[in-house]
Automatic annotation (TrEMBL), chains A, B, C:
Occurrences of domain Aspartate/ornithine carbamoyltransferase Asp/Orn-binding (ranges): 158-303
Gene source species: Rhodanobacter caeni
Binding sites annotated in the UniProt record for L-aspartate: 86, 171, 226
Protein name: Aspartate carbamoyltransferase
Lineage: Bacteria, Pseudomonadati, Pseudomonadota, Gammaproteobacteria, Lysobacterales
Subunit structure: Heterododecamer (2C3:3R2) of six catalytic PyrB chains organized as two trimers (C3), and six regulatory PyrI chains organized as three dimers (R2).
Swiss-Prot/TrEMBL catalytic activity: carbamoyl phosphate + L-aspartate = N-carbamoyl-L-aspartate + phosphate + H(+)
Gene: pyrB
Enzyme class name: transferase
PANTHER family noted in UniProt: ASPARTATE CARBAMOYLTRANSFERASE, ORNITHINE CARBAMOYLTRANSFERASE, MITOCHONDRIAL
Amino acid sequence: MSPRLRHLTTLEHLPRISIERLLGRAEALRDACAHGTRKLDVLAGRTVLNLFFEPSTRTRTSFELAARRLGADVINFDLGFSSTSKGEELYDTLHTLEAMHLDAIIVRHKEAGTPDALVRHAMSGVSVVNAGDGNRAHPTQGLLDVLTIRQHRPDFENLTVVICGDIKHSRVARSDVHALGTLGVKEIRLCGPAALMPPADEFPQCRYHNDFDSAIEGADVAIMLRLQKERMTSADLPDEAAYFNRYGLDARRLARAATGCLVMHPGPLNRGIEIASEVADGAQSRILEQVGNGVFVRMAVLCEVLAR
Amino acid sequence: MSPRLRHLTTLEHLPRISIERLLGRAEALRDACAHGTRKLDVLAGRTVLNLFFEPSTRTRTSFELAARRLGADVINFDLGFSSTSKGEELYDTLHTLEAMHLDAIIVRHKEAGTPDALVRHAMSGVSVVNAGDGNRAHPTQGLLDVLTIRQHRPDFENLTVVICGDIKHSRVARSDVHALGTLGVKEIRLCGPAALMPPADEFPQCRYHNDFDSAIEGADVAIMLRLQKERMTSADLPDEAAYFNRYGLDARRLARAATGCLVMHPGPLNRGIEIASEVADGAQSRILEQVGNGVFVRMAVLCEVLAR
Amino acid sequence: MSPRLRHLTTLEHLPRISIERLLGRAEALRDACAHGTRKLDVLAGRTVLNLFFEPSTRTRTSFELAARRLGADVINFDLGFSSTSKGEELYDTLHTLEAMHLDAIIVRHKEAGTPDALVRHAMSGVSVVNAGDGNRAHPTQGLLDVLTIRQHRPDFENLTVVICGDIKHSRVARSDVHALGTLGVKEIRLCGPAALMPPADEFPQCRYHNDFDSAIEGADVAIMLRLQKERMTSADLPDEAAYFNRYGLDARRLARAATGCLVMHPGPLNRGIEIASEVADGAQSRILEQVGNGVFVRMAVLCEVLAR
């Protein structure tokens, strides 16, 4: 049995048994909810704080719902996003929050590595959960993605997964690769314009593609990433239509994938840029399941790090 | 018995029995509160989300208090009000929130019809409550207004009500007219500068006035609307003093109304523009009762739409 | 026995017995927390509203935690800080909130005297707690400071306390002087650049210093204030280094104080301006204890004003 996690900052190097325990717990919570359990009290008396240095209403709300459904209190520590809090200033904020006897801090920050820096500087019993740091990691997104896949295709050793879009700047892609790799999927393909691909040696276990038509060939899962529109030009793609033409997922391209290929996207969608509505709203789309699983995964993570 | 409402987007065409049931429930909650009941748990385990695309601290707070006093959890989904969320983007937000298993969405949006569009696109069991859409409807304001009137003057069939101000752009006026009409008041008079009056055929059941002195003559209830100051010039009223002179409610004008005429205003007040302090703070003012009733009406609405 | 407080706007003229009762209650809550009590329900069913006209994430969070740990609901009434709400507009907001049946309003406002104006205009049973008004008072900060001192040095009649920085504009300094004076400390020294010192007759019970080296000589407690950087020039101190050189607390200066001199700061720290990291993070620093005591003091105040 692997030791309980006290923090969750990345899925990289997380043992398979830890990931599977979190997924199993999320599934148990999903089942309880399906049978009518609306609210648990396992974290009654605990306080969880959302410390978001980047705005993200969706992720913040998902964590807030997760914490409340476990009976915890939630504080939104709103920094106005003008703060570029780093170094000593960041650690002073951490220590101030610790001194107020918080139990967990959910942190999002544009600098990669910030959650780990908080873990290193934490003095007391506070737990740190990463809600996204720079281009580096978004571990609860990675977990909810593999939970969603597992629900439909538990045979990971047979699966080919393609992740398409701005891989280079995507913390979602990184956490997905880490989780999928640990769980033993057969093949992971990364696809995007050359300018938006990661260094060639970053993911030796993955296949790199620049042509989406060939990348999606026979894939069992297609994870489409949200494109930051300002990055299209750096990719020599002059407009949205050009990007969609080369890297958007529409019904024609989806037909090249394996039958029943799962369509996933971390949201929010840029319809007509990285994904066509016919696919986003189609029978193979798992996008809303991902959202629902996000709450259960975050409940599972909070239970794990805050268990006594 | 009328069927339970699952959503509340407008009072137009709402059956009298439904309005009266909501008012009766609001009164029962007010009585319970007066006898010391601080908090109920009828909505324990339920989650209500405030989805405000226009800022409104007062209305948001009133809904938040209502939901919490019924034991529900409340999430404020703060969009920063820079979002002009419409169409697909809006529905994606809706579906994302549904996938998180929310029970009710309280929505305010500057586009008329947005709450109904959400109702049409809602896929699961979520309830939609309109907290104000464009110029169209503000149903809980309409309900709290008639609740306040009923408390003092339950004989609606004898009442003359005057609504004065920028009728054209007022969702409050529209919801008031719908509720007052359904409950059978004798006469509704709409009064304002010609440029701020609605089309002549919009309210065939009302009398239109441009002269407030004659409009208030013998009225039993005077509902003063908040003036958006930028609209004064379009009404050919060059300044606040000119507006107050012609359409402001002061003691002299109130004396033309029926004895004991109720003075109402949805707030926040522009003192000295649409209402004089001597009247706003006077013995006939019901303005703070309206605020108190607002919480009870919103509790009643949440009970109605979220009852199992 | 002194009567129960219904409001807390300032520590000036507050009887010693009232201050000591609040400190005693805060200590009892701290002990209960140390023995594992996470949450009480003494304020279940009560609603506390944060009405902040100046941003302060730390103080707002401390009050929010305090209220929730007593079982109260908390509403953040966010005014966007663009509002300069004064006079009638402020009182209309107050009366609106009273009409919603709130139990306590925690108010911060840049105008000195605003909380007392709210107390004078409050019509119902609502309690007002000052979270900082202009340069005038920050009573819960004063209480948490004396609580922190008392924990280490209960022999107030022997203590020399130096407060250093921008005394003139500091509500913290004023509340500290009031609390320390009432509790009978031997000597209070105020130290800062001449331009940042209060009028000579404002604190006749204190000694005024412009030279920090002599002011700290033999002190048992050093309270360092946060410098607003824009005030350095008005103090003829051209830059941060110049300020630190004359008024910053470093190890060399701390060595001039009495052995074991307590180092305090209301936060957030300007490291290298009013305090050196070696001292802020050193063995004599009580800065994080202050933060922790802040929550207990605010719990004690809420219990006091909201007790039935």
